Amino acid sequence: MRGKKPKERKNYILRTENGTLVEVTREVYLEWYQSRRREKYQQEQKQKYGVCSLDVVQEGSFAKTSISQEGQPEEMAVRSECLKKLKESLEQLPEQEAYLIYLLFFEEVTVKEAAQICGCSRKTIQNRKKRILKTLKNIMKELGIEGGCIYFN
């Protein structure tokens, strides 16, 4: 685990959802602490940049996408059209590439975690991501989306 670690203690105690205290090992506590920091970071990134999330992926195709429904009807119509084109673009990617994009951008898995899932190096994932995004950009250009027309909230 990189970054600041909690100080050594005799006992490590976590509070469950129902409020009871449970004593855990240092390893469990450190994993919980790291996941809490990751959640906080991801929430900050969502607030700063917005997020697009896929709720369900079925049989290699992106089935359902949720976006904010706030704003003017015109803005919602543009978002809806762009979202439809984004789905089409993602569906044109090979299944493995679409899965990697799903992991990295919609499941918010880190590059390191994606490398472990795919059984390859971090650098390989970074190279694939770069290549896939370039391909996706070209596909979206063909569909009439240039420079990104959607800001997800």
The counted number of beta strands is: 4
Please, how many domains?
Answer: 2
CATH topology of the largest domain: Arc Repressor Mutant, subunit A
CATH architecture of the largest domain: Orthogonal Bundle
Organism: Blautia faecis
Pfam families: Sigma70_r4_2
Protein name: Sigma-70 family RNA polymerase sigma factor
Keywords: DNA-binding, Sigma factor, Transcription, Transcription regulation
Could you please describe the fold and organization of this structure?
The structure is a single chain. By secondary structure, the chain is α+β, with helices and mostly antiparallel strands. It has 2 domains: 12-49, no CATH class; 55-142, Arc Repressor Mutant, subunit A (Orthogonal Bundle). 56% of the residues lie in helices and 13% in strands. It has helices spanning 26-49, 73-92, 95-106, 111-118, 122-142, and strands spanning 12-15, 21-24, 53-58, 61-66. Strand 3 (53-58) and strand 4 form a beta hairpin. The radius of gyration is 19 Å and the shape is elongated. Residues 85-136 form the RNA polymerase sigma factor 70 region 4 type domain. Keywords: DNA-binding, Sigma factor, Transcription, Transcription regulation. It comes from Blautia faecis.
